[in-house]
Amino acid sequence: MVKCGIVGCGIIAPTHLAGYRQIPGAEVTHFCDLLSEKAVKLAENIPGAKIFTDYREMFKDPELDAVSVCTDHASHAEIVCAAINAGKHVICEKVPGRTPEDLDMMLAAAAQHPEVAVSGIFQHRFNRNNIILKELIAQNKFGKLLTVNLNFACLRTDDYYRQAAWRGTVSGEGGGVLINQAIHFLDQLRFLFGNVRRVAAISANLTHQQVIEVEDTVSFVAEFANGLFITVNSTNSASAKWRSALTICGTEMQVEFIDEKLVYLDGNDDSAVTAVRSALTDIDDQEKIHGKVYYGTGHTAQLTDFIRAIEEHRAPEVTLAEASGSAVFVHAVYAACKSGKWCDVRQFQ
Ligand SMILES: NC(=O)c1ccc[n+]([C@@H]2O[C@H](COP(=O)([O-])OP(=O)(O)OC[C@H]3O[C@@H](n4cnc5c(N)ncnc54)[C@H](O)[C@@H]3O)[C@@H](O)[C@H]2O)c1
Residues with beta carbon inside 6 Å of ligand 1? Predict the structure, then answer.
């Protein structure tokens, strides 16, 4: 049995708890929050749960095998490094590194302890449509890729930002819509199309003045290592609650997704189009969503992979280094916004 602990018992923590509870061979036994009442509340139905307010004390317990880090962005690096150095397997919520320096710290600690499984949550990689789409792209089903566009819009109100002091600050959150919400889609783009070469970007705070010190709207163009141009627009000042729209235009087929579901497909060869359509729509996803609908079902799948990686003494599917690539992408977009120039993404890698 892999005994797991959760550090940070706020909004996302119940999604981790519910995910672990579906995994044979895993058990959540340790709960930690600076505010003990939050840890007690999360553990209310867990007999014998151990409650902590200091993660260092929790990591001293030899019975604890693995940790989910579900705290604010600024504390991720410190807690992840402490877990690794204590010999605990660790999976960290996005974003793995609020700054490039945080990332370096975490990657250095992980490199010193290869016996420990270290992963970063990007649950949309476990969405079956994304997995199939990645395979179709690798098989060149869309022909030569010409352009890709990703539009993301959601709503984060002033009240949302006022609910937790870390949100909307450079020191606490590290940025706005890009580092917190749109990062899921930057990771999706890397998952589908590989690494990014350079970016040019612009950002603004359009509707959250006097409330946040970071951006609520960002647009950028990225040149990927394979030469593909991708444009991205993202805002969290929208009327839409949560909507992503991905368009992939290739010489053979054009495909469009809304919220990762197929909405448009056309191409040169009818039988090829039919095969791709059935591959992308014949999905009967029975997994239960724990938490908000737009979290999707991926947490349970990713936590399952994390637990199996521990049992099988292998690396998890999303290693810290792989997850870090998406944080690096975010940092590069911010650097490009600041400089007003193309930013070479490799300088952070
Ligand atoms: N993957 C997703 O879809 C998804 C969705 C929501 C949030 N998140 C991520 O989850 C993380 C947490 O977000 P949230 O909305 O749950 O935040 P939150 O503010 O609701 O909860 C964070 C909790 O961590 C606790 N905490 C902070 N520092 C701590 C420390 N040193 N030791 C112990 N506890 C500490 C706080 O007291 C708080 O209860 C963030 O990284 C966020 O980006 C991911």
Answer: 7-12, 32-35, 38, 55, 70-73, 75, 93-94, 121, 123, 164, 180, 295
